[in-house]
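Here is a typical protein record:
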Amino acid sequence: MKRRILCFGDSNTWGFDGRTGGRFDEDTRWTGRLQKALGPGYVIIEEGQNSRTILAEDPILGEKTGGRYLLPCLESQRPLDLMILMLGTNDLKARFGLTAYNIGQAMDTLLKRVRGLADYDPLLKGMKILLLSPPHLGEGILTSASCENFRGELGLRYSRELADHYRPLAEKYNCVFLDAAEFAAAAPPDYLHLDGENHARLARALAKVVPGLFET
């Protein structure tokens, strides 16, 4: 039976191209590259949404709250063997006023909900979770149009602190943790989104990790 993997995230999972404002094709997105690398024994399910947050309600863009959509998504996509979860960048926006610690608290709540669902749903009970802290905001954001929206130096600092808040959550909720910033970086011109090469780097890193998750 094929391993079913849900990739749940924001624009860097959807494949937003910061240069064109469009979407990278499936051969460029890390999800598509991961599917190719893992082969026919796996099914990659893409669930990315631009501007998606963890729990923050966006008063400007509307329905972007990951916590509202994730549980129904898990139910509709079950059975699942693995969820790759990468959120947190959009929670850095100035209009939410959250610290890295607060974003970590939101992720804690989201993981608690997921584990609560999986505990009673037999088609999710064995689902593994790979928790990724997202790539850091790039230094170039300080001179980009997104500087004010992502709080400049403060946003940069908080983006670099997210891994420290996510790592203990992985242990708490029996997840595997990876810091995506160790493999991929936000690229110009907006210093928020991955370019094609960084999608490839993230996919290569995940392709090395994912098969081993099913060996135990």
